[in-house]
Each structure stands twice: as structure tokens, then as C-alpha cells.
From TrEMBL:
It is found in: Cytoplasm; Nucleus. It comes from the Eukaryota. Pfam families: DnaJ (PF00226). The lineage of its organism: Eukaryota, Fungi, Dikarya, Ascomycota, Pezizomycotina. InterPro entries: DnaJ_domain, J_dom_sf, Pre-mRNA-splicing_ERAD. Residues 21-85 form the J domain. This is J domain-containing protein. Keywords: Chaperone, Coiled coil, Cytoplasm, Nucleus. Residues 138-201 are annotated as: Disordered. GO terms for biological process: spliceosomal complex disassembly.
Length: 275
């Protein structure tokens, strides 16, 4: 059974117990079919609709009309309402027919039933209160656990931050040592004056327009210019706070430029006897 049907059955019993005449409310009787129930509801409730009533809209009365329509349109709910209404009417007739003694007995019985119902309701209420307290207790425990986890995570993060700070400090010191070592190596490579030692353009007098690199179509003077640019780039980096890796890469560029000049000179020297 769906939740909607359960609600309709519950409301059907409540309205029967409260002597709410749903048939009279919609202007129908117990033999009116479902389709006529809906027509009667539309006719009776049209003035109660929010669009019609406006500021005078009565939500409780509108809800009662809607429930009356739903209960009388749903067979099981309608049957439950009819049964409960008839049972209540029968009990009323029986009580009226009883003499005073039996009336007192019935009243006492009903009072006991009501008292038992109140006891059940109070027990349910107490159970709800206890359940809510238990939920609050568990929630507080969970909050305390979460706070402890958070505290431990923050402590671990502090340790990680401290270790990271130490690691960065060590890297900085190592980087300074590498830069100093690179500068020392470069001084050794370029000489104490910071200028290349030996002939300015290598060890062999090579004409500037000599094509030294056939693949790149570079002349000898272009290779010399490449070397000078590489040397100047190293000097610029030495004046800057740059990393050892960048400085080493620039130094490799100088060595490669020197190597290309050397290869060009060797190539030219081998061709000279044939010239």
C-alpha cells in the first residue's frame, strides 16, 4: 500500500471519529459514483479556490474539501470512512439505548481505552525524547572525534611545513654553493680577467667568409659571433641571481661554440694544401 493510501485511510478514520460528514460537505450521498464526486467537489469548492477567494482564502477549509474528494474517490479509503462512520453511529445508538448503569460501564470502558491510548502516546513521546538525546550524544561524540582528527591533521601539517622549510633552506644553500662552483669553473675557463685565452678567433687563421658548416650554411665569422654571444650570455648570467642549472646550460653553449670553431679550423687546415 502506498503512503498516499495510508494517509487517506488515516484521515478517513479521523474524520469519521470527529463526525465530519464528507458526503454532506460535497453535497452527495453514499451511492454517488467517483466521477460525480469530482464534479460535486469542483462545484462546491470553486469559491474556496485561492484564485477566487483571494485574501479570504481559507487553507484549512480548502484542504478539508480536497481530502473529502480524495477519500470518497478512493474505494478503500471510502470504505474505511463508511465503516468507521457506521461503527461510530452504531456505538452512539447503542449508548443511547443503554440504561444508566450500562452507560456508565461504557463510559468507564472508553475512559480506560483513552487512558491506555494516552499511556501509549506518552511512551512514544518519551521514546522520541530518549532517541533525540541519544542522537545528540552521538553527534557530540562525532564532533569531538572530528576535532581530534582536525587537530592531528593540523599538527601533521605543521610538521610537514617545518620539514619543507628546512628542505628549501638546504636547497637554497646548495644552490648558492653550485652557483659559486659554476663561477669558479667559468673563471678557470675564461681566465682571471674573464676573457678567453689564446687567439681571438681560434688557433688557425681562417678567412671570415669560409663556409665552415655546410649543413647550416654558416661562414666562419658567424661561428665566431655565436661564440661571442655565448660568452656574453654567461657573463650576464653571472651578474644576475640565476640558478646553477641555467648557468651550466649557458656554459655548455660556450663550449659548443668553441667546439664548432675548432672543427671549422681543422676542416680548413686540412683543405689548405689543396688550395
Amino acid at each position: 500500500m502506498s503512503e498516499d493510501n495510508k494517509d487517506l485511510l488515516r484521515f478517513a478514520g479521523e474524520y469519521a471519529d470527529r463526525d465530519v460528514d464528507l458526503y454532506d460537505l460535497l453535497g452527495v450521498d453514499a451511492l454517488t459514483p467517483k466521477d460525480d464526486i469530482h464534479r460535486a467537489w469542483r462545484k462546491r469548492s470553486i469559491k474556496l479556490h485561492p484564485d477566487k477567494a483571494g485574501a479570504n482564502f481559507d487553507a484549512a477549509k480548502w484542504e478539508l474539501f480536497e481530502r473529502a474528494r480524495d477519500i470518497l474517490s478512493e474505494p478503500s479509503a471510502r470504505a474505511a470512512y463508511d465503516h468507521a462512520s457506521k461503527a461510530k453511529l452504531l456505538r452512539k445508538q447503542e449508548r443511547e439505548a443503554m440504561d444508566k448503569e450500562r452507560q456508565k460501564f461504557a463510559d468507564d470502558l472508553e475512559a480506560r481505552e483513552n487512558a491506555a491510548r494516552r499511556v501509549r502516546d506518552e511512551k512514544l513521546q518519551n521514546d522520541r525524547v530518549m532517541l533525540e538525546k541519544e542522537r545528540e550524544r552521538l553527534a557530540e561524540q562525532q564532533r569531538m572525534r572530528d576535532d581530534e582528527i582536525k587537530r592531528q591533521a593540523e599538527a601533521a601539517q605543521d610538521m610537514e611545513d617545518l620539514a619543507e622549510a628546512r628542505r628549501r633552506l638546504k636547497e637554497k644553500k646548495d644552490e648558492k654553493a653550485r652557483r659559486k662552483q659554476a663561477r669558479d669553473v667559468m673563471k678557470t675557463t675564461l681566465g682571471s680577467t674573464g676573457k678567453p685565452t689564446g687567439p681571438a678567433n681560434g688557433a688557425v687563421a681562417v678567412p671570415g667568409d669560409y663556409v665552415a658548416d655546410v649543413d647550416a650554411n654558416k661562414q666562419y665569422w658567424e661561428l665566431v659571433c655565436d661564440k661571442l654571444r655565448a660568452v656574453q650570455a654567461v657573463r650576464n648570467l653571472q651578474r644576475e641571481e640565476t640558478t646553477a642549472d641555467v648557468l651550466e646550460e649557458a656554459e655548455r653553449g660556450v663550449q659548443q661554440a668553441r667546439q664548432r670553431i675548432h672543427e671549422a679550423e681543422m676542416k680548413y687546415q686540412h683543405k689548405m694544401p689543396m688550395a
